[in-house]
Amino acid sequence: MTPLAIALIVLVAMFLLGLPIFMSLIISSVVAILAGGDILPLSVIHNSLFDGLNLFPLLAIPCFVVAGTLMEFGNITQQIVDVVKQLVGRVYGGLGITTILACTFFAAISGSGPGTVAAVGTILVPAMVRNGYSRDYASAAASSGGTIGILMPTLNAEFFAVTANSMAARLAEEGYTGNIQGFDNDAAQAVSVIENFITDGVQGIAYMTVDTAGDDALKDAMDAGIKVLTCGVENANYDVCQIMDNKATGYQVGEMAANYINENFGGSAKVAYITSTKSQNMMDRVEGYRQAMEELCPGADVVYEAECVDVGQGTTFAENLNTLHPDCKIILSYSDTYTKEIAEVWNALSYPKDAACFGHDAEAAVLKNIAEGGYIKGTVSAGDPGVAMAEGMIGCLNGEYKDHELVVMAGTEVTPANVGDFYKA
User: Fold this and answer.
1) With contact defined as beta carbons under 8 Å apart, do 156 and 183 qualify?
2) Following DSSP, what letter does each residue of 263-320 receive, concatenated?
3) How many alpha carbons lie under 13 Å from residue 371 in its C-beta half-sphere?
4) Which label site among 26, 66, 258, 359 has the fewest CB atoms less than 10 Å from its CB?
5) What Cα–Cα distance (Å) separates residue 28 from each residue in 2, 18, 21, 381?
6) 218: which residues sit within 8 A by CB, 6+ positions away?
7) Rounded distance, CA 206 to CA 223, Å?
8) Cα separation of 319 and 348, whole Å?
9) Rounded to the nearest 5 degrees, what angle is found at the Cα of 226, between the Cα atoms of 223 and 230?
């Protein structure tokens, strides 16, 4: 009999004996390992247990417990309730409105939907029941803020991490908790996260897409009554989809570079392109700046191109360019992830001060570099994408959009001439 079969038999036996699930899993695993002989060493057990606990994010648990305890013993919860009661308590149905608003304020402070229900619900749900509300209605009112699943291509890149946190902060102002997840640019992992969101019963899913691989999972979410907002690539299944005209914004990147070359190099310079075949959005941006350079700066000589898709590859790109074409001073990138890395390499190499790179996304560090006269001379901004996604999700939940609505967002060129409108030191 195989170790797997033994594990399943023992697991079923433990369930029938009424043991807790975690104990059943541990016992069946140990028995299977022992039965397997040399297949797996017994040390796998304690190594796995240690690895499961050796996670930095787990430090948030005791900190959050302490914060919640301080809020409770500091009487913050009751004070929030008292303030809201003064505002709407006299209105017909005021106790129900008080519950919802109190949960909204508390969620904005705590950042936790379950924590909000536990703290505020213990005070107001019994009060609503005593005043004639049904227990089901009272419980629904206390938990009405709900959770929004936020899904990003990766949380290792500053742009996506900042976007996710910005969205969660805006949602918290409306009483929603953001459950932030990344899928490491892995389509299968994205589908798995969406399925987990459905299982968790989130009210909405905000998904920054790079391809259409999650279409079927998004349809399952919509069939389950979950509102779906996508941003990036237009999928087949969504309630609201926010996209940029990436070819147009890529053209803007090329336009800024062409203007810089025409003004500082007499219309002739060696140029390098960062490219990508990872997603259609990035390919459209690259196509956009190719077109702009061909039309606006025909004297530019493209001497080097390479694909960058992961954090750190901008550094490699700049180092290779310096080795192969040390006289090339202009780089165009479809993402600010790489312009930041290029600027760091050029600083280390003491590159000529008239060297310039141009990107897309207007990350805070890039805007700072532009404002301080660094090597980054231009980027494209679409405002705060996190806030835009949050506003779109809130509007979607409130029924402000028609079904399957497509929203096209425009980009704005940011150069040293207008960076003051986007960045304050």
Assistant:
1) no
2) HHSTT--EEEEEE--S-HHHHHHHHHHHHHHHHH-TT-EEEEEEE--STTHHHHHHHH
3) 14
4) 66
5) 13, 14, 11, 55
6) 194, 205, 207, 228, 230, 235, 237, 238
7) 16
8) 11
9) 105
**pLDDT tens digit at each of 425 positions of the chain:** 777 888 889 989 988 998 888 888 888 888 887 776 665 566 666 666 666 666 666 676 677 667 666 766 777 766 766 776 677 767 777 767 777 677 666 665 655 555 666 666 666 677 777 777 787 777 666 655 568 899 999 888 778 888 998 998 888 777 787 889 999 888 889 999 999 999 878 889 999 988 888 899 999 999 999 999 999 888 899 999 998 899 999 999 999 999 999 999 999 999 999 999 888 889 999 999 999 999 999 999 999 999 998 889 999 999 999 999 999 999 999 999 999 999 999 999 999 999 999 999 998 899 999 999 999 999 999 888 899 999 999 998 888 888 889 998 889 999 999 999 998 87
Count CB atoms within 10 A of the CB of residue 272: 23
Residues 204, 397: contact at Cβ < 8 Å?
yes
In this structure, what token pair is assigned to residue 372?
């301080």
Would you say 220 and 195 are in contact if contact means Cβ atoms under 8 Å apart?
yes
Are the C-beta atoms of residues 419 and 371 closer than 8 Å to each other?
Answer: yes
Q: Give the Cα separation of 269 and 299 in Å (integer).
A: 7
Region at 383 (left for phi over 0; alpha for psi -120 to 50; beta for the rest): left
**Following DSSP, what letter does each residue of 371-386 receive, concatenated?**
HTT-SEEEEEE-S-HH
- 376 vs 366: CA distance, rounded Å: 7
Phi-psi region of 416 (alpha: psi -120 to 50; beta: other; left: phi over 0): alpha
d(CA 303, CA 323): 12
For 183, half-sphere exposure in the C-beta direction (CA atoms, 13 angstrom radius) is 24
- Determine contact, residues 162/364, Cβ cutoff 8 Å: yes
**d(Cα 230, Cα 392) in Å, to the nearest integer?**
10
Token pair of 103 as six digits: 């949960």
| All residues at 6 or more sequence positions from 148 whose CB lies less than 8 Å from its CB, including other chains | 171, 176, 177, 178, 179, 202, 203, 204, 205, 206, 393
Q: Find out whether 354 and 375 touch, Cβ atoms under 8 Å.
A: no
Residue linked to tokens 């039965």: 35
